[in-house]
UniProtKB/TrEMBL annotation:
<dbReference type="GO" id="GO:0005886">
    <property type="term" value="C:plasma membrane"/>
</dbReference>
<keyword id="KW-0472">Membrane</keyword>
<dbReference type="GO" id="GO:0012505">
    <property type="term" value="C:endomembrane system"/>
</dbReference>
<dbReference type="GO" id="GO:0007155">
    <property type="term" value="P:cell adhesion"/>
</dbReference>
<dbReference type="InterPro" id="IPR000421">
    <property type="entry name" value="FA58C"/>
</dbReference>
<dbReference type="GO" id="GO:0005576">
    <property type="term" value="C:extracellular region"/>
</dbReference>
<keyword id="KW-0964">Secreted</keyword>
<feature type="domain" description="F5/8 type C">
    <location>
        <begin position="116"/>
        <end position="267"/>
    </location>
</feature>
<feature type="signal peptide">
    <location>
        <begin position="1"/>
        <end position="18"/>
    </location>
</feature>
<protein>
    <submittedName>
        <fullName>EGF-like repeat and discoidin I-like domain-containing protein 3</fullName>
    </submittedName>
</protein>
<dbReference type="InterPro" id="IPR008979">
    <property type="entry name" value="Galactose-bd-like_sf"/>
</dbReference>
<keyword id="KW-0130">Cell adhesion</keyword>
<keyword id="KW-0732">Signal</keyword>
<dbReference type="InterPro" id="IPR050633">
    <property type="entry name" value="Neuropilin_MCO_CoagFactor"/>
</dbReference>
<dbReference type="Pfam" id="PF00754">
    <property type="entry name" value="F5_F8_type_C"/>
</dbReference>
<feature type="coiled-coil region">
    <location>
        <begin position="64"/>
        <end position="108"/>
    </location>
</feature>
<keyword id="KW-0175">Coiled coil</keyword>
Amino acid sequence: MALASFIFALLCVSELSTDKAFSQVAPNAVCSCQEAYTSEDGTTTVVLQLPKTSTAVSTGNKSLSELDKLKQNYQKQAQMLSSQGLLLMQQAKQIQQIELELQDLKLSISKPPADCQDLLVSGNTPISDSQITASSMYNSDHGPAHSRLYTNMDNHIVGSWSARTNDNKQWLQFDFGRVRKLTAILTKGRNQIAQFVKTYQIHYGNNTLLMKGYRDGTGSVKIFQGNIDLDNIHENVLNPPVYARYLRINPLTWYGHISVRADVLGC
Ligand SMILES: *[C@@H]1O[C@H](CO)[C@@H](O)[C@H](O)[C@H]1NC(C)=O
Ligand SMILES: *[C@@H]1O[C@H](CO)[C@@H](O)[C@H](O)[C@H]1NC(C)=O
């Protein structure tokens, strides 16, 4: 009499165990609850399989016990619907949050102006090694010239600039020779060895004694997300761009050691 069918639903659970969250959403339903995946921010996505009872309608008079069964089925369905309502409300909340995150993401992946994307450090007209300087170097094999984006480890060549010490006073500086419009920062970690800069700030100016921090909307010196691995380029668009001769990258947090390769887009 009851036709077996199932409702599949996705439920995002944050800061709650799967079971707890499920019992909140569908307190009375018997159901299988499977973890589908856990994303980076710790949010677990769970696949719920809710049984849905459906009643076959028959003609003619029904016995009392049949009527009772029908009534129970309807009650079950009502319960199920209210559980689904809760589930939908929860999903709506999740979607709202995802939309906000997408907005942030859109800002951070906004592209620099198409006509101002020359590689100012190592592009067609590269700056010289002497125009790349740093607060310190691990030793002379790890000097600032090793910070060119394309540097790879090869025999004795070290695949990045590495600071002497790991603290938040280190910097890598590019002198573009004259004032340029700077539209994005590109960074990579160290080739072959697990070291990279996770977050950094930048300072810029026309005189190395008067460098300005690049600020965010709230007026604090902006913290840029850096790398999460060794060889992929992470790009941060400067929106708005800056006009300056010098640019300094100041690592704030790092993995393994302060080691970075970088270039600057601009014109
Ligand atoms: C149901 O039972 C009632 C009372 O016995 C009768 O009057 C009625 O015609 C029946 N209905 C059907 C559809 O058989
Ligand atoms: C550098 O000089 C240029 C041109 O004189 C000026 O537009 C720009 O604002 C200066 N940058 C800084 C950071 O002072």
